[in-house]
Amino acid sequence: MLTRRDLLKKVGAITAAVGVAAVSRSTMAALPEPVLQQSADTMDPLIPNTGRPYNPVVTLNGWTLPWRMNHGVKEFHLVAEPVVRELAPGMKAHLWGYNGQSPGPTIEVVEGDRVRIFVTNKLPEHTSVHWHGQRLPNGMDGVAGLNQRAIKPGKTFMYEFVARRPGTFMYHPHADEMVQMAMGMMGMWITHPKEAHPHIDEVDRDFCFLLNAYDIEPGSATPKIMTMTDFNLWTWNSRVFPGIDPLVVRKNDKVRIRVGNLTMTNHPIHIHGHEFTVTGTDGGPVPASARWPEVTTDVAVGQMRQIELIADEEGDWAFHCHKSHHTMNAMGHDLPTLIGVDHSGLMQKINKLVPDYMVMGERGMADMTEMQMPLPANTLPMMSGDGPFGSVEMGGMFSIFKVRSNQAPGDYKDPGWYQHPAGTVAQEWTGAVPQLSVAPAESPETKVELKVKKPGAHHPH
Ligand SMILES: [Cu+2]
């Protein structure tokens, strides 16, 4: 049995909120003490010490909210508030979230639990919480104006319902939704089955995370809330690679990964080296007869996909969104494609006019990772992340599925890079090769002429 002290230790650098200025003392006294998180690290699973037992999830770069048992009701306290979230080492974003982080903490309960959630609003504007996918009384569904009055700044509301069906759900505001979700307000909700379920398997490791996205101008820290499609930071639980922790498993573990999408576009989630099946959606578990093998599954907007696999291939396997623009960090999209364009002599000419100008993309964009281009403060390189063989040239929605035979059960610590057995890494061929012509034939039609436009009105001499 865990004591409260042990419980707090497990959750990491969490603190109880003190001096909540906007909320009166008497109101707070009746509420469970809110638990806050200051770190963006992946916390160990929260082993339940009250209520029905279950196998807890691991929230990627996140944590589970501790609860208080009050006469058989599980009581949670969410605090909606501005937060500072580290997106990856080197960049912090000013977001809105819950209990110190964005996304908010994962809420884990068991099928049949009566749940009471206090929501305190410390934002500068009103909010509400919608419990995506839940069966509940209409007045608990959280759509401000439709199902309840909005929660004004400084006020606390109470939601209460029975977690009727097992599954993976999400929570997010349903008041000024576009702004509040663009600012990072969202979290996951897991309802574990109360007993053996015909369509829910026991697993050794159970991960969850949300897909989200931000548009933060290089050098600034606050997302642009009006952006509809052109986001520049594609995140998993408000983290970008190389800031996203690896998913660490023991060889032959049965692994479940729950992925919810609260961005404004779809994300084909892809794993290397293994096949998986989709075993559940936010509508519930999928019967075994309706599952088929995949290596990529599309997670559309507002959907959750729960995938399962046997981790039977050792190694460091890429796990990422298959939209190549989503595995990049802050970038502009209005650059011309320059592959194959001859820049000879051009740099000197341009540098006379614009001393800092750099030609990019002449041979592709891979040079970007080596370019010592000065970045504004609080910005990440477009692609980076060093691997054992050089730069991984990735950013955004990318992580590594690390399968190790010597990883202890229940150990989620990063084991470092995979040590490949001798002779199992692709390498340069040093034997004889047939004569190949590499340079493309040049003809007047394919030769591209570059015209340099000089800044200012007058023509070049
Ligand atoms: Cu994507």
TrEMBL record:
PROSITE patterns: MULTICOPPER_OXIDASE2, TAT
Region of interest: Disordered: 437-461
Extent of the signal sequence: 1-29
Boundaries of every Plastocyanin-like domain copy: 89-195, 221-334
InterPro entries: Cu-oxidase-like_N (IPR011707), Cu-oxidase_C (IPR011706), Cu-oxidase_fam (IPR045087), Cu_oxidase_Cu_BS (IPR002355), Cupredoxin (IPR008972), TAT_signal (IPR006311), TAT_signal_bac_arc (IPR019546)
Segments traversing the membrane: none
Keywords: Metal-binding, Oxidoreductase, Signal
SUPFAM superfamilies the UniProt entry points to: Cupredoxins
Keyword presence, Metal-binding: yes
Entry-linked PANTHER family: MULTI-COPPER OXIDASE
The protein's name: FtsP/CotA-like multicopper oxidase with cupredoxin domain
Lineage of the organism: Bacteria, Pseudomonadati, Pseudomonadota, Gammaproteobacteria, Chromatiales
